[in-house]
Design brief:
CATH topology of the largest domain in chain A: Butyryl-CoA Dehydrogenase, subunit A, domain 3
Shape of chain B: globular
Bound molecules: flavin-adenine dinucleotide
Largest sheet of chain B: 4 strands, mixed
Strand order of the largest sheet of chain A: 1-4-5-8
Number of domains of chain B: 3
Strand content of chain B: 5-15%
Shape of chain A: globular
Cofactor (chain A): FAD
Number of helices of chain B: 13
CATH architecture of the largest domain in chain A: Up-down Bundle
InterPro entries (chain A): Acyl-CoA_Oxase/DH_mid-dom, Acyl-CoA_Oxase/DH_mid-dom_sf, AcylCo_DH-like_C, AcylCo_DH/oxidase_C, AcylCoA_DH/ox_N, AcylCoA_DH/ox_N_sf, AcylCoA_DH/oxidase_NM_dom_sf
Helix content of chain B: 40-55%
Largest interface: A-B, 46 and 48 residues
Family (chain A): Belongs to the acyl-CoA dehydrogenase family.
Number of strands of chain A: 10
Keywords (chain A): FAD, Flavoprotein, Oxidoreductase
Number of domains of chain A: 3
Helix content of chain A: 40-55%
Order of helices and strands of chain B: HHHHHHEEEEEEEEHHHHHHH
CATH architecture of the largest domain in chain B: Up-down Bundle
Oligomer: heterodimer
Strand order of the largest sheet of chain B: 1-4-5-8
Structural class of chain B: alpha+beta
Radius of gyration of chain B: 22 Å
Strand content of chain A: 15-25%
CATH superfamily of the largest domain in chain A: Butyryl-CoA Dehydrogenase, subunit A, domain 3
Largest sheet of chain A: 4 strands, mixed
Distance between the termini of chain B: 33 Å
Low-confidence stretches of chain B: none
Order of helices and strands of chain A: HHHHHHEEEEEEEEHEEHHHH
Radius of gyration of chain A: 21 Å
Mean pLDDT of chain A: 96
CATH class of the largest domain in chain A: Mainly Alpha
Protein name (chain A): Pimeloyl-CoA dehydrogenase small subunit
Chain lengths: 376, 394
């Protein structure tokens, strides 16, 4: 049993964290948010240059073969910087589908551009009016003339508006299928919006749009197994991102407690606030433990992986809420303003809870699985 | 990073597990499962079994009977102990006075007390708190006035756990009133049979009697029983209170309770005591505490791992006391909820031979008594003050 990072992992973490702190200060982020796309191509190119986009991909695909721990370190740094660039959408979600399901030919066509930061992908799975955070969809894929015809509507497609390629889930008659769809193809319409956390989301409509047989990832029934893995990886990544956002929020708050003066003293000298800061610290540390657990569980036995990941997601949902709410409260009115970083972290933490199953969702899953600890 | 135990650690775990399985007397195990109060003899018997195996005082220095275990081994040992339903031995002997004597005792004191303390031939109690001095321990008043080669003690201690069984007390007494309140405190050892000592029981909300008031009326204690220097007792006490890092959260105990909760839940679901809605709500609540327990467990392991690498995860270590006690309390709350009306009467309600009957009956006293864990050993509020000051710099 060992929780120490290797020297390379430490270096990766320090380098990425420092790089993001130096190149992506808060004003840069705000500028990016105001741009047309809502994120910065330049900042994303910076991540590409550092080799971070290729991190989880195999070396033969042009990646670095990084594992769960490396992903955790990067996502934590991204969380600290509150980056809105499409790392999660492209590398973690869509990239995960490519890694777990795509053929060598499909990967060869996409991964190099993805790794270079030039090819943006988004995963279009969620739909309105259907049980949330499940693998169920209404979008259909019918086999027609050597290819497929897709019909349906997707919501909350993260970075969908900027995507060059969408990965669309649809029922095929043989189970859930995943399809590579050119975002600019005929029959695809995309309507972009901004998430309350700043991250762009989109609604996607597919109307009789056709793709070739080579658009199918794996076989027609592979979608469920692929997404099951990818979503757990994505939850682990979100847990790490949340830890980064919480750590940043916590640091800013403690700093504020030391500097803000009222009644002639720093407000941090008031015990009522000290104890709440300690509670924040506890939530942060518990979340960090769970992010580590999640990262280390990814390669493990499936049942245990599911329990651990659900537990991690439930924990960060709760912790993120406490840390965010307390930080805003302890900042007083400044905490409410749109120009202050703490509010943005709070919003991102709130969004992270909502994504891929919130706290209650995962607690219910755990209850159904018989709990966190597998029966002895 | 790697979550798995090494083959050596697994072998160690198996060895410990086998030992507990064989060495723990059945009647003791049953009492632990049923949350029955342990008699003095029970604790003595078990500590001697452990001591014979060399495992009663494992974190003492090796020369005094300790084991040079890695943090991981300590963690494993404690967890296995809890899962085996084994009692913990006397904390006053094992965790408090023993380590203090190893560090501050004279050669004479070591020779006289250490082996006897490890074997529980001497039963110790702790006389720190006074009616006016709890969290603000240094404001204690009970006086020890030098008279030749004796100190003469007058005053009162309170909350003294198990003083009614104790052969000896280690305590803090005021030998000087002139300086700062932390100065002038001395750490003394006293024979509870000394004339002038009166022990009066305090009944607690669980209906039990563990705590006592202890009165001193011209009690004469030889100067040879001073530990450390006169007036420097505060340093000795701080050493004693600086609790051991691993195990402070009592994860093993909470896990063991959790598995009992789970089996009771299944039973009450099967026999129709719980409605489906109740079952669902309960499953959800259990998942909730389990998530937190898992997070705490991992945090504990991070501390253990950091210790093995020469420290570092300080922030995590202090969280363990507060969060761990909150967890333990939450468990007892759930047990009580689950027991429902059946838990109202502490007398037996179940069928004869019902394996769960004992601890269902104990649910309420257990819940009430566990309110103590966030109060003693430095209340959780005091812990938070310490964290805020030392870690956050507030
Ligand atoms: C079951 C049990 C067994 C015990 N056994 C022993 C024993 O064997 N020997 C022994 O010497 N003592 C023993 N104690 C005493 C124990 O150490 C004290 O109860 C403890 O230190 C708290 O002191 P107090 O009870 O006087 O509470 P107080 O100090 O009066 O505190 C009352 C409340 O105020 C809070 N508070 C106090 N100061 C602050 C502050 N600065 N900031 C915020 N909140 C504060 C406390 O957290 C608590 O909630 C035992 C206690 C219990 C409950």
């Amino acid at each position: 049993m060992d929780f120490e990072l290797t020297d390379e992992q430490k270096m990766l973490s320090e380098t990425v964290t420092r790089y993001i702190a130096e190149t992506y200060e808060f004003s840069k982020r705000e500028h990016a948010l105001r741009g047309d796309e809502g994120w910065s191509r330049e900042a994303y190119a910076g991540l590409a240059e550092m080799g971070l986009l290729g991190l989880p991909f195999a070396e033969e695909d042009g990646g670095f073969g990084g594992g769960g721990v490396e992903m955790m370190l990067i996502m934590e740094a991204i969380g600290r910087g509150l980056m809105v660039e499409p790392y999660f959408a492209t590398v973690v979600l869509a990239g995960g589908v490519l890694r777990h399901g795509a053929s060598a030919a499909q990967r060869a066509g996409i991964v190099p551009g993805l790794v270079a930061g030039e090819h943006i992908l988004a995963l279009a799975h969620d739909e309105a009016g259907i049980a949330r955070h499940t693998l169920a969809v209404r979008t259909t894929a019918r086999e027609t003339g050597g290819g497929w015809t897709l019909d349906g509507a997707k919501i909350a497609v993260i970075h969908g508006q900027s995507a060059d390629t969408l990965i669309v889930s649809a029922t095929t008659g043989q189970g859930l299928g995943l399809f590579l769809v050119d975002a600019r193809a005929e029959g695809v319409s995309i309507e972009g919006a901004r998430g309350y956390d700043g991250v762009p989301v989109a609604s996607v409509r597919l109307s009789g749009m056709t793709v070739g047989a080579d658009a199918l990832i794996g076989t027609a029934g592979d979608g469920e197994a692929i997404l099951d893995k990818v979503f757990d990886e994505a939850r682990a990544a979100l847990a790490a991102e949340a830890v980064g956002a919480m750590a940043e929020t916590f640091d800013i708050t403690v700093d504020y407690l030391k500097t803000r003066q009222q009644f002639g003293v720093a407000i941090g000298s008031f015990q009522a606030l000290q104890h709440r800061a300690v509670d924040m610290l506890m939530q942060l540390e518990l979340s960090r433990s769970m992010a580590v657990l999640a990262a280390l569980s990814l390669g493990g036995e499936v049942d245990q992986r599911r329990r651990n990941i659900a537990a991690a997601k439930a924990q960060i949902g709760k912790s993120g809420r406490i840390v965010g709410q307390e930080a805003v409260q302890m900042h007083g009115a400044i905490g409410i303003t749109a120009e202050y970083k703490v509010g943005h972290a709070f919003k991102r933490l709130t969004a992270i809870d909502a994504l891929l199953g919130d706290r209650d969702h995962h607690l219910a899953r755990l209850a159904a699985m018989g709990g966190v600890y597998a029966a002895a | 990073m790697n979550l798995d135990f090494t083959p050596e650690e697994i072998a160690f775990r198996d060895e410990v597990r086998a030992f507990f399985r064989e060495a723990l007397p059945d009647d003791l195990r049953r009492k632990m499962i049923d949350r029955e109060h342990l008699e003095k003899d029970d604790t003595v018997r078990w500590q001697r079994i452990l001591n014979a195996r060399g495992w009663a005082v494992t974190h003492w220095p090796v020369q005094y009977g300790g084991q040079a275990w890695t943090p991981a081994q300590r963690y494993i040992f404690q967890e296995e102990m809890a899962l085996a339903h084994a009692p913990e031995g006397s904390p006053f002997n094992v965790n408090m006075i023993g380590p203090v004597l190893c560090r501050f005792g004279t050669d004479e004191q070591k020779a006289r007390f250490l082996a006897a303390t490890a074997n529980l031939d001497i039963w110790w109690c702790q006389g720190f708190s006074e009616p006016g001095a709890g969290s603000d321990l240094a404001s204690l008043k009970t006086s020890a006035v030098r008279d030749g080669d004796h100190y003469v003690l007058n005053g009162q201690k309170i909350w003294t756990t198990q003083a009614q069984h104790a052969d000896w007390m280690f305590g803090l007494f005021r030998t000087d009133n002139s300086g700062r309140k932390q100065q002038g405190i001395s750490f003394l050892l006293l024979d509870m049979g000394t004339p002038g000592i009166t022990v009066r029981p305090i009944e607690t909300i669980d209906g039990g009697h563990d705590a006592n008031e202890v009165f001193f009326d011209d009690v004469r204690v030889p100067v040879a029983n001073l530990v450390g220097e006169e007036g420097k007792g505060w340093d000795v006490a701080k050493h004693l209170l600086g609790s051991e890092r691993s195990g402070i959260a009592r994860i093993g105990l909470s896990k063991e309770r959790l598995s009992q909760l789970r089996s009771l839940e299944r039973r009450l679901a099967d026999d129709g005591t719980l409605t489906t809605a109740e079952q669902q709500r309960l499953a959800f609540k259990l998942a909730e505490v389990e998530v937190e327990l898992r997070a705490l467990e991992l945090t504990q392991l991070r501390v253990v791992s950091a210790d093995a690498h020469g420290g570092g995860a300080n922030a995590a270590a202090s969280i363990l006391k507060v969060k761990g006690t909150e967890m333990q309390q939450r468990m007892t709350e759930l047990v009580l909820e689950l027991a429902g009306p059946a838990g109202l009467a502490t007398a037996a309600h179940g069928a004869p031979g019902d394996p769960d009957q004992g601890w269902i009956a104990a649910a309420a006293p257990f819940y009430f008594t566990m309110r103590k864990v966030s109060i003693f050993g430095g209340s959780n509020e005091i812990q938070k003050n310490i964290i805020a000051k030392t870690m956050l710099g507030l």
